[in-house]
């Protein structure tokens, strides 16, 4: 589910009827949708047919390579990846990707890239969720422009031709999912409207603005990738030639700082922080909030074992009061079956604590994750023993 129906530019009164340009030529209608013809979709109107391809060649970049598993794949333990300032930086978002964890539903990684206009990309195989840790810019696509800044989640549906235009160096947490990225159903009424007790509202989501409507002929390369394959398609026109569209499938941004936390008299479990649901995973946002205020309540997270899920936690900013010595852009991985919890002394110190200022993104997957060989360079081998330190 996208935040709501949206419409930009010139669209006809009815679907699948003739729409003509100023000279009487027929506009090219394109339906983009999920689940065959049963899921969310949008209808776009192009100046030129999106099928107009001059050439096809192999893509030779590094951004779509299948992740290789870590040398420690057979060892079950907790991991802490210290990535701050260490992620390899590339010229564009796609080549700047470093995959860190994966399973059949999801690939989680980092993307570090310099300022500038990125290439045109169309991901036909997965929805993309980007969390912007550092940097700003704009996502340009066939749907228009979405500006982004640190703290934003940016959702890019599969099949969206887009490019990242970055104003400065960027660092993104990236999540590619074979299913779709949705708002949790329990936050919605029967008509799909967000409920009063949801932790966000439709007005918090930033939809595309400023249709680009590029009427340019020439040669324009688009990197198309899906299911481990990639090609470069050379179009005979600018891919952002859309003059109008409407529907429920489009890119959008949502700031983690607009997530409204839920608290209570006793410690609230992680589902109250859920922000997105994914086939095979959930994404949660931890933000500054009032802590549980019952008598003698231990406000630190209790020891717990993930018996049906693996937990990834990406530390964004603030005071991570449940752990010590954790810096922004660090990632912890707690695989299923092994208990984890607050650092030594944290539970006692948390009694009577009224607020927390931490900001973090959590991803729980329902199938086991595999760490990649690229993640080995960031791994702190002392982390599994940190609960006995001090």
Question: Strands, helices and their partners?
Answer:
Elements: E1 6-9, E2 28-33, E3 41-46, E4 53-58, E5 79-82, E6 89-90, E7 97-102, E8 106-113, E9 116-117, E10 120-123, E11 127-134, E12 137-141, E13 144-148, E14 152-156, E15 161-166, E16 170-177, E17 181-182, E18 217-226, E19 229-237, E20 242-247, E21 252-255, E22 274-278, E23 281-286, E24 289-290, E25 304-305, E26 310-317, E27 330-334, E28 339-340, H1 346-350, E29 355-356, E30 359-365, E31 370-371
Parallel strand pairs: 6-8, 10-18
Antiparallel strand pairs: 1-20, 2-3, 3-20, 4-19, 5-27, 7-8, 7-31, 8-16, 9-15, 10-15, 11-14, 11-16, 12-13, 12-15, 14-21, 17-22, 18-19, 22-23, 23-30, 24-29, 25-28, 26-27, 26-30
Note down, in words, how this protein is organized.
By secondary structure, the chain is an all-beta fold. It has 2 domains: 6-69 and 87-254, Jelly Rolls (Sandwich); 256-388, Jelly Rolls. It is 1% helix and 40% strand. It contains 1 helix and 31 strands. The strands form 6 sheets. Strands 4, 9, 10, 12, 13, 15, 18 and 19 form an 8-stranded mixed beta sheet that branches. A hairpin with a 2-residue loop joins strand 22 (274-278) and strand 23. The longest helix has 5 residues, at 346-350. It is globular and about 75 Å long. The protein starts with 5 loop residues before the first strand and ends in a 19-residue tail after the last strand.
